[in-house]
Design brief:
With 156 residues, this protein is α/β, with parallel strands linked by helices. It has one domain: Flavodoxin domain (Rossmann fold, 3-Layer(aba) Sandwich). The protein is 31% helix and 19% strand. The protein contains 4 helices and 5 strands; from the N terminus they run βαββαβαβα. It has a 5-stranded parallel beta sheet, with helices on both faces. Helix 1 links the parallel strand 1 and strand 2. It is globular, with a radius of gyration of 14 Å. The chain starts with a strand and ends with a helix. The structure holds flavin mononucleotide (FMN). The site of flavin mononucleotide has 17 residues, from helix 1 and strand 4. Flavin mononucleotide (FMN) binds next to helix 1 and strand 4.
């Protein structure tokens, strides 16, 4: 079971969570971290998607939307780009504004549904810092540990 953690960019709160999971799982060699920025060493090419049995999309929440790069990626994704039994998940960082994490989950689920792909209901979210003092110090050690627990409990 090989997992891809796919992040829009190679910095920020979501990347912090994914880097943590990847480092903790490094011993198993079953978890790769890639990003959607062409300039990054970790850039994902579409062909690589076929290597994975599980893909976890990561994003912040921006005015109730997914990160622009992830949205573009999901828009261009085709059913045949991923293995037929590949399981898809979402992990988010956010401020905790209203139900904006749920809005973003629904947005991703609908985009994937249009491709005939199913986004698993079990999504992860934790706080991420931004705008000065807002959620300063997040994601914290407890949230990072929770992200790893969530990851480990996903069906294998
Ligand atoms: C322009 C902008 C809009 C945001 N909108 C929301 C929002 O609608 N709901 C929320 O809970 N957090 C919101 N946030 C907070 C981000 O989701 C949070 O800081 C997240 O951790 C950013 O992830 P990143 O560091 O990976 O980009 C917003 C942040 C920015 C910069």
């Amino acid at each position: 079971m090989k997992t891809l953690l796919l992040c829009p960019k190679d910095h920020g709160n979501t990347y912090t969570v994914f880097s943590y999971i990847q480092k903790q799982m490094a011993f198993s060699n079953a978890c790769d971290l890639k990003v959607l920025s062409p300039k990054s060493d970790y850039y994902l090419t579409k062909a690589e998607l076929q290597n994975y049995d599980r893909i976890i999309f990561g994003s912040g929440v921006y005015g109730g939307n997914l990160h622009k790069k992830l949205k573009e990626f999901l828009f261009s994704l085709k059913r045949e780009d991923v293995k037929c039994r590949c399981k898809l998940y979402l992990a988010l960082t956010w401020f905790g504004r209203s139900d904006s994490n749920m809005q973003v989950f629904n947005q991703a689920a609908e985009m994937l549904d249009e491709k005939g792909l199913y986004l698993q209901n079990n999504f992860f979210s934790c706080f991420g810092a931004g705008f000065g003092l807002v959620r300063l110090g997040h994601p914290n050690a407890k949230e990072l540990a929770a992200s790893l627990t969530w990851f480990k409990e996903l069906d294998s």
